[in-house]
Design brief:
Layout (H helix, E strand, L loop, with lengths): L11 H10 L5 H7 L3 E3 L5 E3 L1 H11 L34 H7 L6 E6 L4 E6 L12
Antiparallel strand pairs: 1-2, 3-4
């Protein structure tokens, strides 16, 4: 084992500054230089790219987790594609309804086109809240 002693990983502005200083290095070398590695039993470094990338995202102030869901559970993200189920139903998941701020009991009018289905949310003034023209 050479002079490789484990250091505490950098975070925040320190991490961003160090990455800028190391712009000519590879991603793996940057991660290692910033402390995002562990030493194997044989003493060789194993870079943890996921922790490094997550720390960079956090240092940049980018919020990837939904602030609405405080229970710490991930779940699926919206893909904006659905498939007809075996029983013929189309299920619109909670990712979409949460994004629109829908609540149980909200009503919609369904209109069918040749190759589309349009949902019109019914409210106090029956206005179309989200109209997607083809």
């Amino acid at each position: 084992m050479a002079n490789d002693t484990q250091v505490k990983p950098l975070t925040g502005q320190e991490l961003l500054q160090k990455v800028k200083e190391l712009e000519t290095l590879s991603k793996e070398d940057k991660a290692k230089a910033c402390g995002y590695y562990t030493l194997t039993k044989s003493g060789s470094p194993r870079v943890n790219m996921m922790k490094f990338m997550n720390a960079l995202i956090e240092a940049e102030g980018i919020q990837l987790d939904s602030s609405q869901n405080g229970n710490g559970r991930g779940g699926r993200s919206a893909s904006y594609r659905i498939t007809v189920q075996a029983n013929g139903n189309l299920l619109i998941g909670s990712a979409y309804t949460k994004q629109m701020g829908l609540r149980p009991g909200d009503e919609f009018e369904i209109s069918l086109g040749r190759k589309h289905i349009r949902l019109k949310q019914l409210g106090d003034d029956d206005e179309l809240l989200a109209d997607d023209e083809d």
